[in-house]
Amino acid sequence: MNYREQYQSKLTTPEEAVKVVQSGDWIDYGWCAITPEALDQALAARYQELYDVKVRGGVLFHKPAIMSVPDVAEHFTWNSWHMSGVERKMIAEGATFYAPMRYSELPRFYRENVAPIHVAMFQVSPMDSQGYFTFGPSASHLQAVCERSEIIIVEVNPNIPRCLGGMENSIHVDQVSMIVEQESPIGQLPAGGPATPVDEVVARLIVEEIPNGACLQLGIGGMPNAVGSLIAQSDLKDLGVHTEMYVDGFVDMAMAGKLTGAKKPIDRFRQAYAFAAGSQKLYDYLNDNPACMAAPVSYTNDVRVVAQLDNFMSINNAVDVDLFGQVNAESAGTKHISGAGGQLDFVMGAYLSKGGKSFICCSSTFMNKKTGQLESRIKPTLDNGSIVTDTRANTHFLVTEYGKVNLKGTSTWERAEKIISIAHPDFRDQLISDAAKMGIWRRSNKR
C-alpha cells in the first residue's frame, strides 16, 4: 500500500474519530498554533456522555469548545504547560490548572513522568510525497507526545505551514491512527500594538550590548519585539537565532538581512526554534524555509547546547523584581499570569556562553487598575504568593527605562544599590529605607 492509499484508508470524520475518547482519559491537544479545531468541536458535542476527561495543551489562541460546555468541570479539565491570556481567564471557571515546568524538560516529562495518553489530537501540515506530516510551527515536544499516545489523530489543515527541521519535527502516516481534514485560519498572536516609549528606551539599552555575530533568543512581549525592530534598523550583521519561541521580530531582522547564522558553531546558517507564534507574515516566512529549523524544546532550551553558542543574548520580560535580584515572570501575587517557560533555561545558558548575556527587562512602574495608583515593579521583596522564575543567583542583567545593571558577582548590598538605581525616582527613597530595614543597605552608599 502506498502512502496516499494509507492516507485514504485512515481518513474519517471528526465525529467518528473522537468516539475513541472515554471518560477518565488523559488526552493531548498538542501546542499553541496546532491545537485541534474540528476535533475539539466534535469532542465538545459528546460532553454529556463523558466525565473526568483530562486534557493537556498550552498557549491557546482561543478557548477550546470542550471548555465552554455546561458544568465543564464535571466533564473536562484543562491542564496547561504555559498559559496565554485566554487560559488565565479560564482559571476562574475552576476547570483549568497550570503545570509548573522548566520548558526544556517537557519532552522528558512525557517520556518518564506524566500519566500515559490515551488519545493525542492536533493539527498538522498536509502530507508530503514521503508520507510525512510536519508538526507545523509547534515541534516543541510533539514527538514525545506521540511516543506516549495509544491513539494519534491528526487534523490536516492546508493553512498549517510545512516547517522544516533537523529532528522530531514530523510524524509519518504509518504512525497515525486516524486522519481528519479541515481548513481554518491558523491561530495568530496579536502584535500588541506599537512599542511604547519605555519599550524603545529599554531596547536601545540592550541593543548597544549586542556584538556582530551574536546569537539571539527573544521572549514574548512588547520589549523583545522592540529589540527585534531596533536590530532590523541597526548596523549589526551576521546574527544567529537559537530560541524557544520564534516571533515576528525575527522575520523583521531576516528581511533586513541581519540573520545569516554564519558565526554559529552549531546549526550554522540555520535559525533553530521550538515553536512559533505570530502574524501570517511569520507563518508565510517559516513555510518550506530551509533557513529555519524546527526542533524539540529539549534541544533548543538545553543549557548545554546554548552554552556552545558564543555571544548568546537572551532577552526576556518580568512582572516584577525584588531587591535581592529575584525575578517573577509568572504571577501577580497568587494570581496566575503566565508560566516559567524557558526563561531560566536561557538565563543560565546565556551566562555559560562565552561572551553571553541574559537580560531581564521591565518597565520601572505600572498602573494598578484597581487603585488607580502608580506602583513600582521593583519591590523590597516579591509579593506574598509571587513565583520566583529566576533565582537571585542566576540573574545577570536587569534593565528598565532608567538603565541596566549587571548583578553577577555582587553582594546583597551591592545588588540592592544597583537595582534601586534603575527604579523609578519616585520610589527610590522608600526602597532605600526598606533595604536598610532588611539589612542590605550600607550607610556609605550614595542616597
Automatic annotation (TrEMBL):
* Residues that hold CoA according to the record: G219, I220, G221, G222, M223, V319, G342
Where, by residue number, is the active site?
Answer: E244 (5-glutamyl coenzyme a thioester intermediate)
Acetyl-CoA hydrolase/transferase C-terminal domain segment(s): 278-434
Reactions catalysed:
butanoate + acetyl-CoA = butanoyl-CoA + acetate
Q: Does the keyword Metal-binding apply?
A: no
- InterPro entries for this protein: AcetylCoA_hyd_C (IPR026888), AcetylCoA_hyd_C_sf (IPR038460), ActCoA_hydro (IPR046433), ActCoA_hydro_N (IPR003702), Butryl-CoA_acetate_CoA_Tfrase (IPR023990), NagB/RpiA_transferase-like (IPR037171)
A Pfam family name for this chain? Answer: AcetylCoA_hyd_C
Q: What is its EC number?
A: 2.8.3.-
- Acetyl-CoA hydrolase/transferase N-terminal domain residues are 3-183
Pathway it acts in?
Answer: Lipid metabolism; butanoate metabolism
User: What is the enzyme's class at the highest EC level?
Assistant: transferase
Key words of the record: Fatty acid metabolism, Lipid metabolism, Transferase
Function, please? Coenzyme A-transferase that converts butyryl-CoA to butyrate.
- Identify its protein family: Belongs to the acetyl-CoA hydrolase/transferase family. Butyryl-CoA CoA-transferase subfamily.
Which protein is depicted? Butyryl-CoA:acetate CoA-transferase
